[in-house]
């Protein structure tokens, strides 16, 4: 089944509004916040019937348009970025390969870091100002890029344009991330993209409904009633399922309730004035509460105080000493046994388990049972003489005094700790006593809670074996007992009239009347809350329909079926090209409508990590392969940026990486930042072989100045033979333009410099077309097949080289012309002729390689 049909079949099982939304996506509709709100309203208000034939009838699958390529145009106007020179502009060719060369410390990494902060990079480093400047200001700059024919720019302190994130950046840190972290593959089959869009719609609808829910969840006013009465209980239990009958019962009220209330208030007021027993009862209650709390604090001080701490320390010490004695006895008694640690805790646990099983296996015999024919309860083997003796020695050890003493000491310690555990929690009666004090706004409550909290902390620390702090209980207990006596004396001095019951009943009637009136007058508030609760219930039910879990699962299935296999095959193929075996690119887990992937071993033991097995060079290669895999699925063919991609790689892999990068540049913009001269040569060679445009850029640090100056060309040391020949032509052409009126010494100095460059060009040609093909200098391996090149060099080739090199040597500054020779520098025409000789020789001998 094709992915599109698979999605439609799956969608038939989803709610009607998701089917309708998916049909609109397929038809090409786009969705915004107002659409999410419309869908949310339709969910709450009514169920919409599908058209004849269903939501997906007469639909033409959406044609996915390929995104336009994003290319890097320039980085310019940098200021306060590292120590980079201001006012510079680094440009990039739109097609083919642009190689940006810079020595270490030239500022190359600063430019690369600026780019990585703006484009799509798995690893980004913070852009710092000049740390040597007293006040360098905030880093700033501009990145210019194009999307198709549309040129745009973004400033360094702005949020990057989303399209700019389609440019992919790779360096060693990014490569490492492919080995250690999961990531999405940007490519999606159109059917998967449909589901991702549907997931976005579900999320948007969920956001709208949740906002409505939050708005309705704000607590509204309710009738103010006595918290101890039945009305308060009804309001607390009010829910979406509360019936109309229950509401009607709750708001019933006598028609003359207001008059009854006024009369009742007078009765209560009269009883309160006439009866002092209420105050007396309150004083007695407070006195009893204070006494109860004081008793509890004294008990706690006894149970967890200094004396208890000392007792615990002694028990712990006794247990440790007894255990050490048992261990010593074990070591001495069983030194010759096959296994060590007899008598240890683990051994005792095993022994006890064996004894328990023996009671089942041999219920009529004491443990250990060692008679003839007895079988070991652990290994199930018949006991031999040695085994019988060993078991009897073990049993004797277990009942021996040292072992028994250790067990008793440990039991005492454990029992004491259990007793401590019992005092961690505050008893209910104490909590109630404190609550009584709180109701009277008693100022002692804070002091009591503080002491109780300190004692609980101390108890926990004792149980856990932590360092403890002493708690002053005596001062608090003394104050509480004095206050308790004072309150009791005050209560005893009062006359009790016995009106407590009558007053309580009158007060209850007053509260009931107040509650009835409040509930009757506030029925609309009650109804409003019930309606809100019913709406919240409905919101929760609809929110469950917006959950994207099933969509994420389906995306995962489709991605595994239509993307993961292709990605794994591509990844494996690229890895094999770099000499990496037993690796794969596997799907890991689904997240928010996307399927994550990660590099991993194939058929290795579970838990094996790439970074713990692969060498540094292999890790670099595998990170590069991961980047290639991700770039492969970018249908827009947007730019790829590489920053020193071949660190830690040997010569053969560097050649492979160079060829692969150049292949990528056949149909997309590729930029390489490097400080490696040899790597630039490999890139140039590969570009020439497959006819990929090759552009040069340079970044340099000037003497006595800051780094970061940009140029259009590579420095002389980084130029290959062909580039050097072109540079010689430029130098001679410049000399011809400046020759008229030039002092003789200046002219001679320029010809000497050009002659020196000619000499170096000859040496680079010999190295490039003869020596390097013959010898792999990284492995010191002689490529015997390349000996044919030497065989094709003719005597005339050798003579041409010797004659030219001899003439150039006579012009170079390393020779001091004898005064009697009356030396004169070569004419510009002679220099131009010599360049022709060099270039012709280079082209002719280079053809010998074929």
Protein described:
Among the domains are: 69-167 and 638-717, Rossmann fold (3-Layer(aba) Sandwich); 276-305 and 423-492; 311-420, no CATH class; 719-847, no CATH class. Helix 14 packs antiparallel against helix 16 and helix 20 packs across helix 22. The mean pLDDT is 82. The chain has 29 helices and 15 strands. The strands form four sheets. Strands 6-10-11-3-12-13 form a six-stranded mixed β-sheet, with helices on both faces. Strands 2-1-4-5 form a four-stranded antiparallel β-sheet, covered by helices on one side. A three-stranded antiparallel β-sheet has the order 7-9-8. The chain is of the alpha/beta class.
Work out the strand percent: 5-15%
CATH architecture of the domain at 69-167 and 638-717: 3-Layer(aba) Sandwich
The shape, in one word, is extended
Q: Count of helices?
A: 29
Profile the largest sheet.
Answer: 6 strands, mixed
